[in-house]
Write a structure and sequence with these properties.
heterodimer; A: 301 residues; alpha/beta; Rossmann fold; 2 domains; six-stranded mixed β-sheet; 11 helices; 10 strands; B: 336 residues; mainly alpha; MetI-like fold; three-stranded antiparallel β-sheet; 66% helix; binds adenosine-5'-triphosphate; binds magnesium ion
């Protein structure tokens, strides 16, 4: 394959990147997932969404999860959030078994899920209020987090008055206000336009640099995954299994010009192969239009 | 501008005009039947009896009888009866009803001890108020619990669903036997008519709460009780309020039946009396007044609602938004 010959090896790392990963691996394991399995339903109608999924996430690591639609990404993250129960295996946060939802794991949803009856500030203070913090502390916290996501001027707005990008920034601030150990994000930028998305990626990286938090991030956008992550967990479908855990050989802090880095393209190619199969070019040939033409010929007979 | 685009809202002005027409049109039809003598007017009111021995001025007679009498009189060469076409007494003209709105209030009751109109109305309002309040005090919390927790729903809803098909008035005689002949049974009927629907409507509304909000709250550390009081309750509040507004309308419709139970009271007693005396203007005035009070309460609740729930997008433009805007109550869309 000609493209592969031109590409650098995605596994090759510069000394700087190597050091980065060595340091990363030496950090404590925040999230430990072992042989996790999930079967929906029973008997004939049962779906095996996850099978023997195992991986570790280290402190302050940024891990993305990618994979074809229906491979169980959301199911996995919902189990980690405690919104769903696994049928086998275990998931541990700081060596403690995850059972049900808890404030140690913050979640950001694609659909924002802001509380419409609370103002922006009220949304951010929700978590701390539930923890029974005093209202003074809570307010100071809210100001801090809203400042961090650049929404100080909007603290008294209601969610319906915000744009999608602003809503999601509130969503992030709300999750962080609880000071979770890990931030779980399920396609948080999936509903945003390309420009807002790029902006949000920059925001997220900046937040992650300044806040002591580990991030687990689901996305369909492979470029986004590469740009943001330390490592990418690639899942395959039916049943959902770990296909590969790819280390991203790019230096930090990340900058947009890295999108054109040959190592970026090499990783991108590798992910394409993992997710779309060995010959993505060929798959493209069997495009929708071609299919229609062929149907036309059959009809003509 | 396309007035008939599906789902498209009209400009406030067009909305206002159409709302106005919705009241103007029936009034125009009524006026036409009342003031145009060639429309309907099936009777003749005698103005001069001429040589007739039976017809007296002021009498209303069938058109046919009137013409037969005149044919008979003219064949004998006598002076014919004179008259004008009129409508039956049960269709008073708009201006008569309009006048009745005033006179009904200032006319002394025929029998001493009978209530004045305003007393009757006040009595009716109290019956509704208590019936609806008692129903809501139990029905709303029960409905919320049913909507939130499925064991509670499974326990209560099947039976409530069954009872709600029994017409509330059917319990009238029972209510009298149990709570006596005064206002008790009337309030009981409003209660029965409202309560069972209320539980089901409120539980449905509660069930309609976005699950994702509950999950979001869970990941933020909300406990069981907090999910109920800090998420479910505020989450459904605007819809709950809307439900109660609609249910209050239903309670109004039970009023008349309720007031017939035991001794007739309130506005119903007034209506029956006036129709017995054949003062139909007053009957119409009273019926319209029930409608007006209902509408007024609804508008007020609507205005209050837009104040209570500033996070709601103005979702229901209608007569209420139009009138409240016109009155200057409408909340301005916040722009920043
Ligand atoms: N509540 C459920 N009941 C039954 N099956 C479910 C349920 N939730 C998910 N599944 C199944 O589990 C599998 C994984 O679903 P999941 O939503 O986790 O996929 P995903 O990777 O997030 O997909 P996408 O990329 O489209 O969001 C799918 O086959 C789906 O049909
Ligand atoms: Mg998903």
């Amino acid at each position: 394959m000609s493209t592969e010959e031109q590409l650098v090896d995605y596994r090759e790392q510069t000394p700087e990147v190597k050091r980065y990963f060595e340091d990363l691996r030496s950090r404590e394991v925040v999230l430990k997932v072992e042989k996790l399995g999930k079967i929906f339903g029973e008997g004939v109608g049962a779906t095996e969404a996850l099978q023997d999924v195992s991986f570790d996430v280290h402190h302050r690591e940024f891990v993305s999860i990618v994979g074809p639609s229906g491979c169980g990404k959301s199911t996995l993250i919902r189990i980690l959030a405690g919104l769903e129960t696994s049928t086998s295996g275990s998931a541990m946060l700081d060596s403690e078994e995850i059972r049900g939802p808890g404030s140690g794991r913050g979640m950001v949803f694609q659909s924002y899920t802001l509380f419409p009856w609370r103002t922006v500030a009220g949304n951010v203070t929700f978590g701390p209020e539930m923890m029974g913090k005093s209202s003074d502390d809570v307010e100071k916290e809210a100001d801090k987090w809203l400042g961090m996501v650049g929404l100080s001027d909007f603290k008294n707005h209601y969610p319906h008055q915000l744009s999608g990008g602003m809503k999601q920034r509130v969503g992030i601030a709300r999750a962080l206000a609880n000071r979770p150990r890990i931030l779980l994000m399920d396609e948080p930028f999936g509903a945003l336009d390309a420009q807002t998305r790029a902006l949000m990626q920059a925001y997220l990286l900046q937040i992650w640099r300044h806040v002591d938090v580990t991030i687990l991030f689901i996305t369909h956008d492979l470029d986004e995954a590469i740009y943001l992550s330390d490592r990418i967990l690639v899942l395959e479908a039916n049943p959902g299994r770990v296909e590969e855990f790819v280390e991203i050989p790019l230096e930090r802090p990340r900058k947009p010009d890295q999108f054109l880095d040959p190592r970026f393209l090499a990783v991108r190619h590798r992910l394409d192969v993992l997710i779309h199969g060995e010959f993505p070019e060929e798959a493209e040939e069997l495009s929708f239009i071609g299919g229609v033409d062929r149907f036309g010929e059959v009809d003509a007979d | 501008m396309d007035w008939f685009a599906i789902g498209r809202e009209l400009s406030p002005k067009a909305r206002g005009i159409i709302t106005f027409c919705s009241f103007l049109l029936p009034l125009a039809v009524w006026s036409a039947f009342s003031y145009l003598p060639f429309l309907w007017h099936p009777l003749m009111e005698v103005t001069e009896s001429g040589d007739s021995r039976y017809f007296r001025p002021g009498m209303t007679v069938e058109r046919e009888a009137f013409h037969q009498e005149n044919a008979r009189l003219s064949s004998k060469g006598s002076v014919p009866v004179k008259g004008i076409p009129v409508n039956p007494v049960y269709l008073p003209a708009p201006h008569e009803v309009g006048k009745a709105f005033y006179t009904a209030f200032v006319t002394e009751p025929r029998l001493p001890g009978d209530p004045w109109l305003h007393e009757s109305l006040w009595h009716s309002i109290q019956v509704i108020f208590w019936g609806f309040l008692l129903s809501s005090i139990i029905g709303v919390p029960l409905g919320i619990l049913c909507g939130a927790y499925s064991p509670i729903a499974r326990l209560f809803e099947p039976f409530i669903d069954f009872v709600r098909y029994m017409p509330a008035p059917a319990f009238g005689a029972l209510a009298v036997a149990i709570v006596g002949i005064y206002d008790g049974p009337k309030i009981a009927i409003i209660f029965i008519g409202t309560f069972f629907q209320q539980v089901l409507v409120v539980s449905n509304t509660t069930r309609g709460l976005d699950r994702a909000l509950v999950e979001a709250a869970q990941t933020l550390g909300a406990g069981k009780l907090q999910l109920l009081t800090r998420v479910a309750l505020p989450g459904i509040l605007p819809d709950l309020y809307r439900d109660l507004r609609i249910l209050l309308g239903w309670a109004w419709t039970y009023l008349i039946v309720a007031e017939l139970v035991g001794a007739k009271t309130g506005i119903t007693a007034f209506i029956h009396q006036q129709s017995k005396y054949k003062v139909y203007e007053n009957v119409y005035a009273a019926i319209i007044m029930i409608g007006l009070i209902g509408l007024f309460v609804d508008i007020m609740l609507g205005v209050l609602g837009s104040r209570l729930f500033p996070w709601e997008k103005d979702s229901k433009p209608g007569i209420f938004t139009f009138i409240s805007k016109a009155l200057g109550f409408g909340k301005e869309a916040s722009t920043t």
